[in-house]
Amino acid sequence: MEYFLLGALTFIFIWGMISISHINDGIKRTNKLLEKIANHIGAINPPVSALDDEEFNLYISKQEKIKAIKRYRELTGEGLREAKDYVDSLFK
């Protein structure tokens, strides 16, 4: 009986964590979409360019693509694919 209860609680905990992760992903996508809409209609200032960031430029100059991608994502809120494509374009 105790093993069943422990198993059930473990399952509920894992299911809850997965649900929270999905909710967070949905919130991030919604915020990104709202930001794009606001930028399109001019409701907010455009984000700071990554090229204005010293840390980002340091990673680019040292050819540290992964760190540059991570920093770009921090600065812009872009997804992994967009950040990778942007950083890759700087190395061409």
Describe this structure in words.
By secondary structure, the protein is an all-alpha fold. Helices cover 77% and strands 0% of the residues. The protein has helices at residues 2-41, 54-61, 65-76, 80-90. Helix 2 packs antiparallel against helix 3 (65-76) and helix 3 crosses helix 4 (80-90). The longest helix has 40 residues, at 2-41. The radius of gyration is 20 Å and the shape is elongated. The termini are far apart.
Q: What are the SSEs and their pairings?
A:
Blueprint: H1 2-41, H2 54-61, H3 65-76, H4 80-90
Helix pairs in contact: 2-3, 3-4
In short:
The protein has 92 residues and is mainly alpha-helical. It contains four helices and no strands. The model has no long low-confidence stretch (mean pLDDT 84).
Biggest β-sheet description = none
- Overall mean pLDDT stands at 84
- Tell me the series of helices and strands, N- to C-terminal: HHHH
Tell me, what's the shape?
elongated
Number of strands: 0
Structural class: mainly alpha
Indicate the radius of gyration in whole angstroms. 20 Å
Helix content: over 70%
Question: Beta-strand percentage?
Answer: under 5%
Distance between the termini: 63 Å
Low-confidence stretches are none
What tags apply to this protein structure?
single chain; elongated; mainly alpha
